[in-house]
Amino acid sequence: MNLTAASHRIPLNDGNSIPVIGLGTYSDPYTKSLETCLASVKTAIDVGYRHFDGAYLYRNEHEVGQAIREKIAEGKVKREDIFYCGKLWATDLFPELVRPTLERTLQQLKLDYVDLYIIEIPMGFKPGNEVYPRDKNGKWAYCRADLCATWEALEACKDAGLVKSLGVSNFNRRQLESILNKPGLKYKPVSNQVECHPYFTQPKLLKFCQQHDIIIVAFSPLGTCRNPRWVNVSSPPLLEDTYLNSVAKKYSKTAAQVALRFNIQRGVVVIPKSFNSERIKENFQIFDFSLTEEEMTNIEALNKNIRFVELLMWRDHPDYPFFDEY
Ligand SMILES: NC(=O)c1ccc[n+]([C@@H]2O[C@H](COP(=O)([O-])OP(=O)(O)OC[C@H]3O[C@@H](n4cnc5c(N)ncnc54)[C@H](OP(=O)(O)O)[C@@H]3O)[C@@H](O)[C@H]2O)c1
Q: Which of 2, 32, 61, 169 is the most exposed place for a label (fewest CB within 10 A)?
């Protein structure tokens, strides 16, 4: 794989392709101003990013879309250069909700289509305006959805031209297989977006996905923002890792750049989030060096098999994905 060109794209199983690095746009906490999001996406486009990972849930799709449209209007990029990934949230998994939910995202973005639309988590919640619904006793209001029926509704959105490619997120092997083995499957998932970085390298899921021509998109590739409200901070800070820093020193790079390079060099797409212009640039400077086989093996060996993003608050959901080995 030639990873010297910053514009590098990886082919998807449906004939489309995905840029190997994208900008994550989940800002935690939401206190970062929406103007910062707008400015960050514009900076990223100037730097060379063409892939943006967003979601209705992130409450900034409007700004992400505005930044993209402004850069198109400036003549800096064309719509077809940009790759936007949106996400179908857990309250919207019933088939009749899928198309209106995607259309709401398109209205926020003010774009005609998204490049990739993914089921954000395999667990259903009660439909409604509340994105994290609870019942009258304060317990999570779960609602089991037939994900194969959700998938068929997504396939119809692709046929209608609202989305180019379809994927999933946080799916384990069994959940992927239930889609892959669905009778009458029209489009395979092109990707599975999951946590993936040197402390959680996903060797088995990666192998399974490669066998099925499904790309792994690595979320939290730098080890998250470490907000203890939702991050398992018992796993140490990734970017302080001694080995990653020693490799970084050798190449005059940073631990963040080494962590990102590790994933793209093994065919995993990365979507680091930064709303800081220096770090946005830094995270994109990963095409002018490569790791040796020995370094790749050593970084793989850093795997602790512990997630930063465990979603343990939903562990009693019948479709909680992380009890399976992978
Ligand atoms: N599908 C899912 O369930 C799911 C779950 C989590 C995340 N995601 C997606 O994946 C994206 C990335 O994951 P993430 O946001 O959890 O974590 P991440 O990208 O691993 O890390 C983001 C944190 O690292 C900081 N950072 C960025 N570049 C840095 C650098 N070069 N050196 C030091 N610190 C740096 C950022 O702060 P600054 O902004 O201040 O630079 C931010 O606090 C999200 O934004 C979202 O789009 C998806």
A: 2
What the block records as the tokens of 10 is 């990886």
Mean pLDDT of 14-32: 89
What is the Cα 68 distance to its own chain's centre? 18
Note the pTM of the prediction, 2 decimals. 0.97
Instruction: Compute the distance from residue 221 Cα to the ligand 1 centre, in Å.
Output: 7
Q: Is the CB of 309 under 6 A from ligand 1?
A: yes
Collapsing DSSP to helix, strand or coil, 152 comes out as: helix
pLDDT at 2: 57
Query: What value does the mean pLDDT take over residues 84-98?
Result: 98
Locus of tokens 């599975």? 192
Q: How far apart are the CA of 301 and the centre of ligand 1, in A? A: 23
Please list the active-site residues. 58
Q: Which domains does the chain have, with CATH numbers?
A: 9-314 (3.20.20.100)
User: In the chain, which ranges are E strands?
Assistant: 9-11, 17-19, 22-24, 51-53, 83-88, 114-119, 163-169, 191-195, 215-219, 269-270
| Beta strands across the sheet bearing 22-24 | 22-24, 51-53, 83-88, 114-119, 163-169, 191-195, 215-219, 269-270
Atom of ligand 1 nearest to the CA of 238: 20
- Taking only the tens place, the pLDDT of each residue in 24-33 is 999 976 656 8
Among 15-24, 90-99, 104-113, 226-235, where is mean pLDDT lowest?
226-235
CA angle 50, 54, 60 (to 5 degrees): 110
252: helix, strand or coil: coil
